[in-house]
Specification:
Layout: H1 12-19, E1 28-32, H2 36-42, H3 47-68, E2 72-79, H4 87-110, E3 114-118, H5 126-139, E4 146-153, H6 155-173, H7 181-185, E5 198-202, E6 220-224, H8 233-245
Parallel strand pairs: 1-2, 1-5, 2-4, 3-4, 5-6
Bound molecules: farnesyl diphosphate (FPP).
């Protein structure tokens, strides 16, 4: 596979790219962006410096994923559990998110990327919600990659919200057909989006951390020791190469 301007000729990225089979790319890549705090700690910097540095990785991975032709990229940016962190850290994370959108929206739009926020968005500050609404409105008709940013997200909370919605619909419209897997999939925050083929977690922890619990039933999991602020397109290509070597059997033989 070769892409104009994606990698310098002769670089590590360029040789990785050549080994990737463009016909077997994962459609949907989901990422648990972990290790910002440890990245900062290693440099004797405050944790928020790690989050700030993590924004550079977000930029590179969003752009690279779109250039590669992925259909969906889902980034876990803030979990329901993250409210337990010190107030200042939460505030910085929300500011960084707003800053990222303000700074990158024009490029995201130019790259034909559709932006979407998933999670309990209604519980976020109005200043965050208005930035999110604006980004979703501007990029609504884009036909390229879908960029899903999971915010105030938890997989269990998503299932609770989904089942409550289904319950309300059933009460209102009566019992039409039994609940099946398709109905649940189509009622989640990710309705209409294919399940992740590849789930990447940075910084070495072997955990799912309440991310996309329903959707990752058959995802290939790739854990790298690299901290999120160091994660760049080279690491994404390595993850995709490893994914292409896996034998996906979906429970069959
Ligand atoms: C995990 O590192 C990372 C987060 C909780 C936040 C990730 C957010 C960003 C990179 C910035 C905003 C996002 C977007 C999409 C613009 P950690 O703090 O848990 O690290 P540690 O495990 O080393 O402490």
């Amino acid at each position: 596979m070769e892409l104009d301007g994606f990698a310098k000729p002769g670089s590590q990225e360029s040789s990785l790219l050549k080994r990737i089979d463009k016909d077997r790319l994962p459609k949907h890549v989901a990422v648990i962006m972990d290790g910002n705090g440890r990245w900062a700690g290693k440099r004797k910097l405050p944790r928020v410096a790690g989050h700030r540095a993590g924004i550079e990785s977000v930029q590179d991975i969003v752009e690279s994923s779109a250039q590669l032709g992925l259909e969906v990229l889902t980034l876990f940016a803030f979990s329901v559990e993250n409210w337990k962190r010190p107030h200042k850290e939460v505030r910085t994370l929300m500011s960084l998110l707003k800053e990222f959108i303000r700074r990158e929206l024009a490029k995201v739009h130019k790259n034909n990327i559709r932006f979407q926020a998933i999670g309990r968005i209604q519980e976020l500050d109005e200043s965050v919600r208005s930035v999110l609404r604006n980004a979703m409105r501007i990029t609504k008709a884009n036909t390229g990659m879908l960029l899903n940013v999971a915010l105030n997200y938890s997989g269990r909370a998503e299932l609770v919200d989904t089942f409550n919605q289904l319950y309300r619909d059933l009460k209102q419209n009566g019992h039409k057909s039994p609940i099946d897997e398709d109905l649940i999939s189509n009622s989640l925050y990710t309705s209409g989006v294919p399940d992740p083929d590849l789930l990447i977690r940075t910084s070495g922890e072997m955990r799912i951390s309440n991310f996309l619990l329903w959707q990752i039933a058959y995802s290939e999991i790739y854990v790298t020791p690299t901290f999120w602020p160091d994660f760049r397109r080279r690491h994404l290509l390595e993850a995709i190469l490893e994914y292409q070597q896996r034998d996906r059997r979906y429970g069959g033989i």
